[in-house]
Design a protein that fits this description.
The chain is α/β, with parallel strands linked by helices. It has one domain: 3-Layer(aba) Sandwich (Arginase, Chain A). It contains 12 helices and 8 strands. An 8-stranded parallel beta sheet has the order 2-1-3-8-7-4-5-6, sandwiched between helices. α7 links the parallel β4 and β5. One of its GO terms (molecular function) is histone deacetylase activity. One of its GO terms (biological process) is acetoin catabolic process.
Length: 390
């Protein structure tokens, strides 16, 4: 399957930066782009220049008062009390100069990706600057100021009148996007994530099903801490195939956080690079089967920017173009350049070594727990199918 895909990028993505020591670091997008270029997989003809989202577009998913608060914060004019009301100025989401414009660009980059796909310029589009799935209508949360996924899906609904399936494989629950469409039967959200018993934001239970007309269109699979590749992929593939067949979307939007890897410092899952080949391959396949190829992929979490994120995100682009993931060694020149800046030894191959981490003593118990959660989710899908056919 040969596809023409578009890569949304700007050097200005790095202006979205809280502090030098903050775990959210958009340098990872620069590193991924340069890795793809060094591997000969990305050229100027593939690039899509992003634009700034307008305030009217931001208001599709955010209140005007909140937008004004973000603008004031970036100008140093927001009081501490006002900031707390809007989740701005917290340890997770501190204030930085120009934060409104930097956030506008990330949202606009997702809108640029959407238009490129929906106008038929490309089959698929990748915006690694996006995927800020924790932002709420009136509040910043979890490193996310504006929620580009929520704005983008509202934009898809209003401008193109399409049914949207949102698939979130970040280790953290995609709460902001879920709640934005909790009562909308034309947007189906599916999040597979580490259970909220141990991890922010603490939501994403199987019984979060939607409200009113949107009941039955929200799906969550909270997997156990220390879940490994085989269990993760079994749950992901089984649920994704059932959900896409139930909902039959016109377009698929995926959020591709790379923080389920065992190196990630903020989560407790134990995956390897194996899942980052399989996740986009299935999305690609199902987009062609159900949506004539319409697929917009976003970035997301990922806090080991040196050893994990560039390798994981580069695979999305490779799969988008020809479905064959990268194999073997990373480009030597890329490794040598970034090793000079990295505080850890970089990986030199696309895959992780087989002995990357010690065996998990509870592996069978964890796998069994995940199977039970999956069974509950699949039963809910089947029940909804029956209800809809009545």
């Amino acid at each position: 399957m040969t596809c023409h895909a578009g890569f949304v990028y700007s050097d200005e993505f790095t202006t979205y930066r809280f502090r030098d020591d903050h775990p959210f670091n958009q340098l990872r997008v620069v590193m991924t782009k340069e890795l793809l270029e060094a591997a000969g997989a990305l050229s100027e003809k593939d690039m899509i220049a992003p634009r700034l989202a307008t305030e009217e577009e931001l208001s599709l998913a955010h209140s005007k008062k909140y937008i004004e608060a973000v603008k004031k914060a970036g100008q140093g004019l927001l009081t501490e009390d006002e900031g707390m009301e809007y989740g701005i100025g917290t340890e997770d989401t501190p204030i930085f100069k120009g934060m409104h414009k930097a956030s506008q660009l990330l949202v606009g980059s997702t809108l640029s990706a959407i238009d490129a796909v929906m106008e038929g310029k490309v089959k698929h589009a990748l915006n690694l600057g996006g995927g800020l799935h924790h932002g709420f209508e009136r509040k910043a949360s979890g490193f996310c100021i504006y929620n580009d996924g929520a704005v983008g899906i509202k934009y898809l609904r209003e401008k193109y009148n399409v049914k949207v399936l949102y698939v979130d494989t970040d280790a953290h629950h995609g709460d902001g996007v879920q709640w934005a469409f909790y009562d909308d039967p034309n947007v189906c959200t599916f999040s597979i994530h580490e259970t909220g018993r141990y991890l922010f934001p603490g939501t994403g239970n199987v019984n979060e099903r939607g409200l009113k007309e949107g009941y039955g269109y929200s799906f969550n699979i909270p997997i156990d801490a220390f879940t490994e590749d085989e269990s993760f992929l079994s749950v992901y593939e089984s649920a994704f195939r059932e959900i896409v067949d139930f909902f039959k979307p016109d377009v698929i939007v995926t959020q591709n956080g790379a923080d389920a890897h065992h190196f990630d410092p903020l989560t407790h899952l134990c995956s390897t690079m194996k899942i980052y080949e399989a996740i986009p391959k299935l999305a690609h396949e199902l987009a062609h089967e159900y949506c004539e190829g319409k697929w917009i992929a976003l970035g997301g979490g990922g806090y080991d920017i040196w050893r994990v994120v560039p390798r994981a995100w580069a695979q999305i682009w490779k799969v988008m173009n020809d479905q064959t993931p990268f194999q073997g060694s990373l480009p030597v020149e890329w490794v040598q350049k970034w090793q000079k800046e990295a505080p850890v030894n970089l990986m030199e191959t696309w895959h992780d070594p087989p002995d990357a981490f010690k065996p998990i003593p509870r592996r069978e118990e964890i796998t069994e727990k995940n199977k039970k959660v999956l069974a509950k989710a699949l039963q809910l899908i089947h029940n909804q199918k029956k209800f809809n056919s009545m």
